[in-house]
Amino acid sequence: MLSVQYNSGLNSPTDGDALMEKLRGLKCRECGRGYPSAPVHVCEFCFGPLEVDYHYEALKGVVTRQSIAAGPPSMWRYKDLLPVDGDVAVGHHVGFTPLIRARNLADELGCREIWIKNDSVCHPTWSFKDRVVSVAVTKAREFGFDTVACASTGNLANSVAAHAAEAQMKSYIFIPADLEQGKILATLVYNPTLVAVEGTYDEVNRLCSEIADKYRWAFVNVNFRPYYSEGSKSYGFEIVEQLGWRAPDHIVVPCAGGSLITKIWKAIKEFEMLGLVEGPVRTHMHAAQAEGCGPIVTMIKNDTDVLKPVRPKTIAKSLAIGNPADGFYAYRTTKDSGGFGAHATDEEIIEGMLLLARTEGIFTETAGGVTVAATKTLIEAGVIPRDQSIVVCITGNGLKTPDALYDRLETHVKIRPTLSAFDRALTVLKSQGEPRPL
Amino acid sequence: MPLVRIPTPLRALTKGTAEVQAKGGSVAAVVDDLERQFPGLRERLVDEGGELRRFINIYVNEEDIRFLDGKKTVLKESDQVSIVPAIAGGA
Q: What range defines the domain where residue A199 resides?
């Protein structure tokens, strides 16, 4: 929707002198203790998560709508607001995915304005994880690591393996052994060392925390988490820019570890702080989770900041994190923004996937089914008013999780290669009332 | 005595040791004994209200103590206790 002119200077910050100071280091999100920039993620004192500390004063007036619009058509147009000091090492073409006006879906749900932020076509591995991984692998290079690693529910595995290949770094990928075949194949093809762990994602996660303590690897979502998670902000920046520098009234976000929803919110607040958003921000952030693994939405519904971990049981495996590390912050984000949350049953997840496919021609994975289903629930419950603007976050591609639909789609018509055979088949189809609803 | 795995951020208090023995028939008692052996360790694990800090996960063998009996979880001599910072993944 935007006419984008961009410079070729992927690796040139907008204003070198001013932005030399953009990063102060890391800061504990809980107790505020400061740390120098390093591959660490936990406050030594209170165990709170560390996050990147920006020198926002140095960015004011330097990062403008014009400077962003002059950047490349990728997430790196926001490089000044990402924790990369030097050159971008990998993933130069990640992001700037379509924001699509979903008129058919809006008609179906009786709403005025629905948009799909479509990271199911994010380059190169078809999920929003490319955003976080390109930052993490670039930082791994900056810190002199030769090996990257991750604990993953699938999409992250694909992305780490792909970006490690691009960077010509070694990679160790840890996944739950029962992951979808599509996600395993789309990891193995990049030739990483893939370790399938007999356990849940939470068990894989815990194991990786201990491995990260022992081996000097760049675990993108452990010791590189402060940098990695910042990459998700680009998803939020793009929503605002692509809406014409406007923040929508509602954003519905799938939640697993709980990081993405907090970073989209942070992106909007950063843009607001820098004076880049048109009008006041009235965005309500809503969390979408599967009923079989929804501890964050349960916190929201019970209005408690105490997370009760669960044992996941859902077809939305990319969201199957029963002990989300950012659960508290995801809850706070919905609370602070006046948003809410909704659970989706397995049946509703499939219905959500099919609804998006038949109304907008977009094939999302099960996590996207969760988000569409949660959006529908929140609209029908009156939490999201039908006359307000809504952005639905679609973060992964349906071709990775076809298993979920095998039992739901009807067999295609099979005929001999003759016109008479087709005529007969068409007569039968019409007698059944084509097109057949799914 | 239960064996306790100490994560990197706490090893400055245990003189760099990654695994220590601690006395106690429950998780709470083991935390008390860790404080006796390594003064200052308790306040890293427990907040002012006496509750485990939000971003710390404690496991007995392979199980998160929130699925057991929390701080009151009973320990056997042969049990292993792991202190693990919360980490992220997924969306």
A: 129-228
